[in-house]
Amino acid sequence: MPSALQSIPPFENTLSAHGLQLTRLAPRVLQLNIGKLCNLTCVHCHVNAGPRRKEIMTRATVEHILNWLRDTEIETVDLTGGTPEMIPDFRYLVERVRAMGKTVMDRCNLTILNQPGYQWVAEFHAQQQVQIVASMPCYNPENVNEQRGEGVFDSSILALQNLNALGYGSDPDLQLDLVYNPNGASLPPQQQQLEDDYKRELQDHFNIVFNQLYAITNMPITRFTSYLKRAGAYTDYMQLLLNSFNPSAVEGLMCRDTINVDWEGRVYDCDFNQQLGLQQGDASAELKLWQLDFTSWAQAPILTGTHCYGCTAGQGSSCGGATV
Known about the structure:
Helices cover about 35% and strands about 10% of the residues.
């Protein structure tokens, strides 16, 4: 039997068959993956992050990025990891970006707020008006703990209650969004209906409020791919993504208006490409962000692979949730 990768057509072929092209828009978001160090080891993690990872962004790289960013029209700096707050220069980076008048979005795993030595995180975020995008795979403790580890649900609930006490989810300047990932080899349910369920359940049981829910498809790369193969579900999952291809999902893909950068400053089209080593620039010379020219960037093709079917399946999936 052929493997999924052998039987699934290149993503570009599927776009062409639907009369579509994946073209860039003016960059609006700078997404920085500032390290793979994390206090959790989640099954679905496309970064393979964990407590023993050593990849973290240095002050020198931070300075290069800040110097480049200052004169751009980029609106939002999206911080991801790993656990972004664990790098030594996290506060320095956030303060400098906020001083430029740009929005900072932090992809927070919530449990870090309760870790010894990180009790400063919640109040710092509120002071800097950081938009929090927090992973919360379910409002059911069994599902959360299965995906993210024992005790993660209770810790996440406590963190959300503390954020609510600071005004997150109710103060218009303190945006609190949650992220749903399926617990296994399936597509997310319809995002709006799921958001309504989350708001009802978290309000009724824990008196928690939040702004929006992002429903994000698990990407068939790195750690999640290993999980699928151990479960004998990899081929079926890839076929599900292909069969669920939605042409309408292409327009809202994050790779169109986002520049993704790794912990060493290298440039990619998205965080998933980053983990697969699909780097922009000449293969003989790594393109760093501070070397990037916007005119050249606009003309560079967006690099794709079979994992892109994950972002175009069903209602679509991007860093901001459903694209349709």
